[in-house]
């Protein structure tokens, strides 16, 4: 029959579609694909409905087939699917199939003729010992393969657990020793890694993979030992430096105190020029306060041999001092005493002598000096005394 043309000029088939396919003629391509996706053979995404919210009978029937047979048959089916996923490096899917296989092996046993009608029943010999042996082999394979999945997903503790389950079934499984060794090494559990590796090599001394792992364990142990040694040396040096600094402060009569509200000084600290020589030069972080104007300056390293006027000479003039009240000759300096009072700090006296007087203290590793214009000193001192009396 010659082909006919539709009114819009598009060609039409010269013969009618078969009755079973005629109904799709009026459907769009998306509708056809959606219908095909409900058929297990053509599924690209899991659709468990019949398209109208009901049950997908074909899919449920296919699912049920996966659980038909003896425990070994069901588990073997899942194991094979797991192996297929593992070969494709689909580790999460492979692990799920091995999970199902192991669960099936611990489920109720179904004999080949359990669901057959008694009248049509054919006697099939069921060798329980052979079946148990088959189940053990499948379970061993599932555990050791699931260990690989966990290893590749960096679930190292789960990998070690699966290897242990494998070895309980078969103490000679070399793969379990290898994967357990690798997982333990990844967790830096070196004694356990060496034990698993040694046991594996005892069974297979020529195993190159285990030999390579043994070398890696040795190298990693050396690396960790070196790191531990360096850490101990740092800690010992730090403790020695701390003890030396304490001795240096004590020998100079410098009082110190720590509080729970220590400021963040970053890398500024009380330091010795030679951290292991208590007689070497000391330096202090110093906070210069200008309480009459609520301003301050910070000197990161103020040597014990330096005088306050030496620092004031390069700090002055102050950018915010519009009235030019702050000059080296026109200011006075004060420090709080350990007893809570005030002393006048000599501008021409070395800091070490001021601190070594035994009257002031270095609080939280910071020296605080208040600097005021002479004309405002007496007023500030009275205010300070009143605040102390109220406090």
From TrEMBL:
Any one GO MF annotation of this record: Hsp90 protein binding
Family affiliation: Belongs to the TTC4 family.
Source organism of the structure: Westerdykella ornata
InterPro entries per record: Csn1/TTC4_wheel, TPR-like_helical_dom_sf, TPR_rpt
Keyword Isomerase attributed: no
Keywords: Repeat, TPR repeat
Cns1/TTC4 wheel domain ranges (all copies): 275-384
Pfam families given in the database record: Wheel (PF18972)
Repeat listed as a keyword: yes
GO CC, any one term: nucleus
Residue span of region Disordered: 1-29
GO biological process: protein folding
UniProt name for this protein: TPR repeat protein-like protein
């Amino acid at each position: 029959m010659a082909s006919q043309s539709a009114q819009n000029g598009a060609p039409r088939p010269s013969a009618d579609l078969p009755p079973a396919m005629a109904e799709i003629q009026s459907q769009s391509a998306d509708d056809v694909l959606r219908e095909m996706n409900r058929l297990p053979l053509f599924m690209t995404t899991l659709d468990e409905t019949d398209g109208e919210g009901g049950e997908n009978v074909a899919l449920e029937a296919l699912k049920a087939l996966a659980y038909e047979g003896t425990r070994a048959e069901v588990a073997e089916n899942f194991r094979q699917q797991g192996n297929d996923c593992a070969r494709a490096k689909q580790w999460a899917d492979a692990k799920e199939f091995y999970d199902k296989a192991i669960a099936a092996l611990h489920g109720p046993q179904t004999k080949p003729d359990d669901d057959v009608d008694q009248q049509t029943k054919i006697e099939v010999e069921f060798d329980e010992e052979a079946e148990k042996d088959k189940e053990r082999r499948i379970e061993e394979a599932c555990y050791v393969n699931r260990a690989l999945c966990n290893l590749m997903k960096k679930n190292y503790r789960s990998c070690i657990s699966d290897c242990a389950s494998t070895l309980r079934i078969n103490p000679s499984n070399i793969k379990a020793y290898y994967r357990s060794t690798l997982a333990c090494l990844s967790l830096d559990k070196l004694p356990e890694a060496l034990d698993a590796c040694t046991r594996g090599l005892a069974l297979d001394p020529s195993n190159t993979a285990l030999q390579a792992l043994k070398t890696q364990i040795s190298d990693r142990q050396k690396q960790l030992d070196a790191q531990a040694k360096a850490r101990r040396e740092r800690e010992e040096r730090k403790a020695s430096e701390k003890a030396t600094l304490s001795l240096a402060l004590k020998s100079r009569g410098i009082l110190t105190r720590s509080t729970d509200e220590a400021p963040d000084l970053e890398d500024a600290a009380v330091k010795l020029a030679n951290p292991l020589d208590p007689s070497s030069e000391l330096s202090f972080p110093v906070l210069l306060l200008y309480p009459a104007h609520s301003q301050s300056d910070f000197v990161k390293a103020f040597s014990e041999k330096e005088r306050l006027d030496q620092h004031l000479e390069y700090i002055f003039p102050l950018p915010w001092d519009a009235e030019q009240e702050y000059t080296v000759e026109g200011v006075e300096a004060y420090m709080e005493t350990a007893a809570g009072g005030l002393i006048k700090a000599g501008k021409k006296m070395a800091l070490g002598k001021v601190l070594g007087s035994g009257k002031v203290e270095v609080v939280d590793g910071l020296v605080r000096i208040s600097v005021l214009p002479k004309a405002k000193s007496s007023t500030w001192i009275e205010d300070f005394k009143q605040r102390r009396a109220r406090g």
